[in-house]
Amino acid sequence: MALLQPGFAANSASAALDGYSPAHSLAERDWEAKFRAIPDTHLLRDNMQRLSARPHAVGSAYDKDNAEWILAKFKEFGFDAHIETFYVLFPTPKERKLELLEPTTFTAKLQESPLAVDPTSSQTAEQLPTYNAYSKDGDVTGPLVYVNYGVREDYEQLERMGVSVKGAVVIARYGGAWRGIKPKVAAEHGAVGCIIYSDPRDDGYFEGKFFPDGPFRPSDGVQRGSVMDTEYPGDPLTPGVGATRDAKRLDITQAKTITTIPVLPISYGDAQPLLAAISGQVVPDSWRGALPITYHVGPGPAKVHLVMKSNWDIKPVYDVIAKLPGTDSPDEWVIRGNHHDAWVNGAEDPISGMSPVLEEARALGELLKQGWKPKRTIIYCAWDGEEPGLLGSTEWVEEHLAELNQHAVIYINSDSNARGFLYASGSHSLQTMVNAVARDVMDPETKLSVQRRAQLRRIGMAQKPEDRETARGADLRIGALGDGSDYAPFLDHAGVASLNIGFGGESQGGIYHSIYDDFYWYTHFGDPEFVYERALAQLGGTTVMRMADADLLPFDPSASAETVKRYVGELKNELKDKQDKANERNREIEEGVFTAMADPTKTYVPPAKEEVVPYLNFAPLENGVTAYEQAARRYKAAFVKLAEVNPTVWELPEMKAINQKLVLTERTFMTTEGLKERPWFKHQIYAPGAYTGYGVKTIPAVREMMEEDKWGDADAGSSIAGNVLQKQAALVNSIAAELEKVVGQAPPATKTAKRHTRTEEASASGR
What we know:
Helix content is 40%, strand content 16%. It is of the alpha/beta class. Helix 1 runs antiparallel to helix 17 (531-549) and helix 19 packs parallel to helix 22. The strands form three sheets. Strands 1, 2, 4, 5, 6, 8, 9, 10, 11, 12, 13 and 14 form a twelve-stranded mixed sheet that branches. Strands 3-7 form a two-stranded parallel sheet.
């Protein structure tokens, strides 16, 4: 008899699934096991090779060709599929120039070199030039100043050093924040232009061998990418509405997401002569890169001339939408998506996510032939235009917002994927479900469950004993979602519970958004055997099935309430830190005054202005969290009792009404007005930061205002978020009351399927 692998025994075929009746649990486990046996590494490889064979940026011939091929595949798998087209502003380079004028002269190449061993790197005629989309047109000249990563903290350091960037062109390295933050902050400090380069310390030879001998960025490698501002994602000309052919559009001068200064990305090969020409103060240790030069801040004597001009064209984006109708609740939608467009060939980003999505769809099609039918409608989406700014997904969400509000249960996203560990972020009401699914998917290298392997990694990374004990708990905490992929419009604007899933952490590299992100690189350094591609297909498809077939949607308000409570605690700690710093500064001022007054030989100098010690009323938030926690506990108690009553309760019509209310739990976190300074973002628990981009700001109406020292707005945000939590508590209480009524009217159970407790799971997995 074969021994069960540690960490893979907890979910036996006899364990009932959350949200499933005992009988349906057995059937669901059987269908899910059949599904996970279907994905084929050879087909995953074939999908990638086909989709990444040529450059396929927005508006290109191969972008449309790929969309049509994906459409044909979905139809072949048995889906009802179509292409939905939107028309968006997508600039492409018309003129680019970067010259060093003083103290010597140099002209940047602004070109990535083809490599003989890498066949698709030579498709020069079809490759988009190296540029940052949505950079303002400009022709500027000025002294060059090095600003490290170009985030706000770096400018604070420059101010302490007495360095101004007013009238200068800044050069920042990639990293530290999303690229679009760099020109935004530079412009706020008076810069006239921005250059962004990839330093070899971050993803080049400092990290290991560079491509093609290793996975890291070669000297000519350039990271393309959007620098669209964080006001809203999607088409800059149609905020809030779908960019259909006849949509009303803003004039380009009214678009708020185009940068206010010209921006250009370059390689470290082009950056080195520019940085070497800068003198002035030597940079702080943490600002030093890995180029063989001494890094100086400037300004001068280096002086540069930067030109960036674009063709500002309206281009089509092709979203492929494929449906499998549900049999029992067809008006409830489980949505799965990944984008298909790329800056160049994009084998890793995005095809390493798109290929598993197609293989999931094929596997579901095979189950249909065997007699399986989903309870809810399943919608698979291949988005276009994600790279420039979530164009395809945002326009689709805005166009179908009313339908999504009525029908959408969940959105499940993926993007890039490679060898390594499970990562999952999203709505925390989905945390318990994600963990349950991840326990059913085997890691291809360790043969543990992907949940257990990720958990062991987290235990190993924990710095404190108490953190290690927390990490040993049965469930992994999932992360919170900010921006950076197609989940953003679903969660932030439509209030659809969302997840982002994938694998990574073992195959690092430096080919992001370059011509070297292609099939050759991926098959050598990404996931050469395509086993984590298969794992993603297994994980994504099982998640889709688990949500589509559930009798009672497996949302867990308890995990959400616990997470929100933790966020409030973080805010309180941050406030205390600010108060302590303000008090310390005021003590220093006071002591300085007393010293000056006590010494008659010194001239009295008026004190520096005392800092205002901030205050924030957390009572609305704390009361909201308490109410939400109590409601979540009540719901969980009623949910647990389902296992103790007669299975006939699962067939009662009241269960459908409960499901419809559960769908609304994520919507209830929204406000119609949205965030004060960015009203497109409606969610009051999660939002991308205005100065982080991809990075999330939790309880943003409070956190961001605290960071900006806008205490009146932060106080108002506390009331807004607290009110949202009170509404959430009321909704969850009403759901719990309905579930209690259903459980109360059912006769006692005579026999139920066994449910594993966390203690049993821990024992089974060897802990």
